[in-house]
Input
Amino acid sequence: MYYAHQDPVNNSLMVIVEDEENFQFKTFKSNSHFTIIRCLDTSCSWRVRTKRLEGSGYWMVTKYERKHTCATYFKKVRYRQAMSWVVGECVKKRLINPGRIFKPRDVIDDMKRKFGVDISYSVAWRGREYAYENLRLGTPEQSYSILPGYLHMLRETNPDRFKYLFIAFDASIKGFQYCRPVVSIDATHMKGKYRGVLFMAVCHDANQQIFPLAFGIGDSENDVAWTWFLRRINDVFGERPGHVIVSD
Output
């Protein structure tokens, strides 16, 4: 087996977590050239040895003694090595489907069923977050950090038409005059790490199709946030004869 992870101990962990046995282990020796991991019971014959391949960042498992000769005690306790990143690697494929809600409790059940590993709720939660970050190639913090650049480019390509942190595209602003002056507004709670509320305004065009007008982000669905959003609607779209705003 070959692994590209720079940490030899982590390489060995990925081998161990795929094993059908239940056990604990410890790092016996580890440096930049090789690592040896053994069972927590020093008299047990189980061990894994990996070495770094010359001139590359890859590591190779050179020895793997699968059979345990230790007492049952060392095989039945909760794993100290069930680290969050290991758990994340194990459940990552289960999170590919965007329509599936995978809760920490599901992670706990999955690890127990597939690997016989008991993990805590906090490890399951961190493992799930690790998997999500790898699947979406970034954290929520990284996504928010590029928002100013995104907004700047919108202003550059839509001069004098993009206002505030309220999103209304030029096509929507110009198209509104050809739509019915009945605007429907609504909001939905976001499920991401930072929560918040997504506000939206739409209307119907002459073909009876939904025509998106604007979007906004607020901290919660309250009077202050709604007032801010409606004022931005007025700033951008103005008023028309027979103008009506409908909300549920």
